[in-house]
Automatic annotation (TrEMBL):
UniProt xrefs under Gene3D superfamilies: 3.30.2010.20
Annotated SUPFAM superfamilies: Metalloproteases ('zincins'), catalytic domain (SSF55486)
InterPro entries named among the record's database cross-references: Zincin_1, Zincin_1_sf
Organism: Hyphomicrobium denitrificans (strain ATCC 51888 / DSM 1869 / NCIMB 11706 / TK 0415)
Transmembrane segments: none
Highest taxon, organism lineage: Bacteria
Protein name: Neutral zinc metallopeptidase
């Protein structure tokens, strides 16, 4: 299939968010259950504060970030806190997508799985298995 690049446009933040929600819905239910009431936010880039805190100079190097307290560190004694969130950085993901040609929805799912998976201590093998389940 030939892509008509002259008329192609990058998805807007809203369109990208719809792709992210579709990718979320395709994840195996047991994986979504582990993540709980996770919020997914789409932004063009990570903030300078986040990039500086992670020691990242190029905002195109960060495609996503999990922000929250993992289940293993949560306590019933905690006061109310911010909900757990995964940030998807649209421009960085689009840059990776343009380089590798992978289907965009699949790439977004990959970033979601890896941000959630790393946060909960899943191995790369575990995450590959989850991705295979999301693709079926």
């Amino acid at each position: 299939m030939s892509v008509q690049w002259a008329s192609a446009k990058a998805p807007t933040l809203a369109e990208f968010e719809a792709l992210a929600m579709d990718a979320w819905e395709k994840l195996p239910p047991e994986f979504r259950d582990i993540a709980g009431d996770l919020l997914i936010r789409v932004e063009d880039f990570a903030t300078d504060e986040i990039l500086d805190g992670l020691g990242i100079e190029d905002p195109f190097e960060l495609t996503g970030l999990y922000q929250g307290v993992s289940l293993t560190k949560q306590s019933v004694m905690e006061s109310a806190r911010e909900p757990d969130m995964v940030f998807l950085y649209r421009r960085a993901i689009l840059d990776e997508w343009s380089e590798n040609g992978e289907e965009l929805g699949h790439l977004i799912g990959h970033v979601l799985i890896h941000e959630i998976g790393h946060h909960f201590g899943f191995s790369d093998e575990d995450m590959e298995h989850i991705e295979a389940g999301a693709a079926s």
